[in-house]
Amino acid sequence: MAVKVTSKKPLSGNRRSHSNRATKHVQKVNLQKVTLEDGTKVRMSTREKRTLNKPKKAA
Asked: What is the pTM of this model?
């Protein structure tokens, strides 16, 4: 079991039809299983994964 790293939660709201009827809608976070360099397995969002893989700026 991978450890959950992110503190993001699903967004909730309403879907609206042409007749303006509201039905509940949940937009879940895109969690990915990632193995870090030290061998630990974690679940993080794709945004965090992209930030982690971002190349370091040269000073």
From this structure: 0.63
